Amino acid sequence: MFRPLANEDQFLGHTFQYWLNSGETYTSIAQGNFSNLTTDVWIQRFNIFSETELPAFGTIDVTINCSCGNREVSKDYGLFVTYPLRNGDSLKSIGNETKLDEGLLQKYNPGVNFSQGSDLVYIPGKDQNGNYVPLPPPSCSRWWGDSWNIRRSSSCTSLISGLYICGILPEKKRGNGKMLSAQDGKDETSGNDEYETFGSGGPAAAGATGITRIRVDKSVEFSYEELANATDNFSMANKIGQGGFGAVYYAELRGEKTFPLQKVAIKKMEMEASREFLAEVKVLTHVHHLNLVRLIGFCVEGSLFVIYEYIDNGNLSQHLRSSGKEPMTWSIRVQIALDSARGLEYIHEHTHPIYIHRDIKSANILIDKNFRGKVADFGLAKLTEVGSSTVLTNKPVGTFGYMPAEYLQFGDVSAKVDVYAFGVVLYELISAKEAIFRSTESAAESKGLVALFDEVLNQPDPTEDLRKVVDPRLGDNYPIDSVLKMAQLAKACTQHDPQRRPSMKFVVVALMTLSSNTENFDVAAFYENPNLVNLMSGR
Predict the structure, then answer these.
(1) Nearest to residue 20, comparing CAs of 51, 62, 56?
(2) Is the peptide bond before 353 cis (omega within 30 degrees of 0)?
(3) 111, 197, 335, 479: which sits with the fewest CB atoms below 10 Å from its CB?
(4) Eight-state DSSP code of residue 33
(5) Which residues of the chain register pLDDT less than 50?
């Protein structure tokens, strides 16, 4: 489900940004990736490239048309599905399947031959309760003819299975491990934990669904009104952060019986971020751990909202670099590293399927009032089958400075992507520098922490050079041996070869050893024994 907008070309539609792959054409994109919901001619109309000159990489705009009804035809229908005609379809067959009058369908699609198998038609659709949605009263300005601008009135939907663009229509009560389905308005106590996409069974199914159902375990759906009231209409006074996919607001919302009010953080995302929204809700409804931020609930009204527990002491990046924060002691830094490693180790080793975070960084590690760490922001999380050696291929997303070479260059995704990023966080804990920084304000070029520490640790005796990069706010209040061992662990995590990086299980053990102040922790020794390298890497 997407929000279409009227535009100066006098049609209703929505434009998606599409990442090109080598060898693609407007025709293959329209027919394959967009399931014939648009045409090569229509795509080319809004792009500067000709059919034969598409670049191997980059983005183009893909526009999908839709309809919001026609008051002169009927006031009873205000929700429509964009449906690509297929071979074998006819006006009669679609009328029979949707149980709609053939004359009505033809009026909404004047001049369309329903039997030609290659056009788009607009079919009245039902909401999640199986009811047709009427056109709203004419209280807003006309847009073109008798169609209405979606920004002020009725909704339009489009079934885009090739893009997995999904909405959620959850039940308005507390979930308890139930599967919430938009298809029949009922919940199920069992089912596949993966995304299940409806709407592939023709126009009748598309009219009511084309939507995803996911498991919403122990989370609450809140209304938009509740969230708006709790944030003073999302005022700047309540805004506590801004991420890549939306702003974050502080609020107090209804809680359990024993706790009438609970402090929460509300992330507000645009409808276009549905993929990230689904990923975040998907992970946090299945994964529960002390060192992972807890999901409280969500809302899908106008925008997408994810509600988390409120962690009241900021994030690691703020504590390392904000002048308004007291410097953290070395022991606190080690503890936060261990907490974060435990959270990552849990999603890598103890869930099925396993999850890969893909955006580990100091800003996504929250710090509570007891200075314990929690991993947050699962909007880019990727799931895969059990086995840390599993590699997926995707276009790189995340934060520069934290992404390893195999991910940046080839899009290879494995648990070792998170391990690399965690190594950069360890370097941050030592130096308080950003992942990519300038040595001085006037420096022309930036430098990465991995390169900086490689220069230090490659010295025959790195101790003195290491002292020069330790966070100056620590003064001399740190054990240099402990700092060296953490730096060696970070170096292991940021190895160029992903197979030589340790598993998060090993990282947790190493940090537990470091935090206990024992002398048995020596990462370098592991690389002298191939069998131990395999063990360390989780193989």
Answers:
(1) 56
(2) yes
(3) 111
(4) I
(5) 1-11, 139-218, 257-258, 385-389, 518, 532-533, 535, 537-539
307 and 299 Cβ atoms separated by less than 8 Å: yes
Say whether both 384 and 502 belong to one domain. Answer: yes
Q: Which two tokens stand for residue 340?
A: 């974060």
Alpha carbon distance 31, 193 (integer Å): 30
Residue 287 lies in a domain: yes
State how far the Cα of 220 lies from the Cα of 75, in Å rounded to an integer: 35
Give 370-419 pLDDT, tens digit per residue: 999 999 987 777 765 444 445 555 567 778 899 999 988 888 889 999 99
DSSP string of 364-411, one letter each residue: GEEE-TT--EEE---TT-EEE-S-TT--EE----S-TTS--HHHHHH-
Q: End of a domain among 309, 337, 359?
A: 309
Nearest by Cα to 490 from 436, 414, 419, 407: 419
Q: Do 519 and 413 lie in a common domain? A: yes
**Assigned domain for 211 exists:** no
Residue 479: give the domain boundaries. 314-536
pLDDT at 500: 95
Boundary-marking domain end, from 78, 106, 124 = 124
Residues 351 and 286 in one domain: no
Model confidence, pTM? 0.60
Phi-psi region of 538 (alpha: psi -120 to 50; beta: other; left: phi over 0): left
Predicted confidence at residue 92, as pLDDT, reads: 92
Quick one: 305 and 318 in the same domain?
Answer: no
**Structure token digits, residue 268:** 């507000």
Structurally, how many domains does the chain consist of? 3
Residue 359 a catalytic site member: yes
Residue type, 47: N
Closest CA to 520 of 510, 508, 530, 528: 510
How many of the other CB atoms lie within 10 Å of CB of 180? 20
**Alpha carbons 76 and 131: distance in angstroms, whole number:** 11
Tokens read off for 92 = 């009669």
Token pair for 301: 């009204």
Whether residue 444 is found in the same domain as residue 394 = yes
Residues 429 and 495 placed together within one structural domain of the fold: yes
Do both 287 and 340 map to the same domain? no
Token look-up 């922790």 returns 521
**Residue 395 annotated as binding?**
no
H or E element in which residue 206 lies:
helix 203-208
**Residue 200 lies inside a defined structural domain of this protein:** no
d(CA 319, CA 322): 6
User: What does the alpha-carbon distance between residue 421 and residue 413 come to, in Å, rounded to a whole number?
Assistant: 12
Tell me which of 89, 359, 377, 471 is the catalytic residue: 359
In terms of domains, do 57 and 86 share one? yes
Q: Phi-psi category of 213—alpha, beta or left, where left has phi over 0 and alpha has psi -120 to 50? A: beta
> What's residue 148's pLDDT?
29
Rg (CA), the chain: 27
Which of 439, 514, 447 minimizes the C-alpha distance to 483?
514
